[in-house]
Inverse folding.
């Protein structure tokens, strides 16, 4: 159990941690903006076929599941439906899930867990995969969300 003075110190650090986390992730996103993983083009081809009205197929007439995440495919296709370039759509989603993961620490986490956001944001691999076009960071968001919710439920 934290005493009131320790809790007050953590509350005073929160804005600094949030600002530092934001600056770190922004720095890495800018530095790594040229990266795009070649495996991401697989799901983009499926999304292109969905948007063309051909269904969830790699080649027209061949019903083979070659994508790794149905949710990621649908989210990219949804943005593509609104005429957003598919590569840009996958990058937007990656960055949105990266930011959402960092915000989870501040919204749902306890005071000391906010340092987790700082640790993640200063790991360049986190930003790299946010830009890579794959569902890696989205998966991390859902795992983090589940872990924080589980911890909160077990403390009740």
């Amino acid at each position: 159990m934290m005493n009131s003075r320790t809790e007050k110190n953590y509350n005073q650090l929160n804005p600094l941690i949030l600002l530092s986390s934001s600056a770190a992730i922004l720095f890495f996103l800018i530095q790594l903006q040229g990266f795009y993983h070649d495996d991401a083009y697989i799901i983009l081809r499926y999304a292109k076929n969905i948007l063309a009205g051909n269904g969830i197929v790699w080649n027209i007439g061949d019903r083979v599941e070659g994508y790794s995440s149905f949710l990621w495919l649908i989210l990219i296709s949804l943005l593509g439906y609104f005429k957003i370039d598919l590569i840009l759509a996958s990058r937007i989603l990656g960055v949105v899930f990266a930011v959402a993961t960092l915000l989870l620490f501040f919204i749902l986490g306890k005071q000391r867990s906010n340092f987790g956001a700082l640790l993640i944001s200063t790991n360049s691999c986190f930003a790299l995969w946010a830009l890579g076009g794959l569902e890696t960071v989205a998966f991390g968001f859902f795992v983090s969300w589940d872990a924080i919710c589980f911890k909160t439920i077990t403390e009740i």
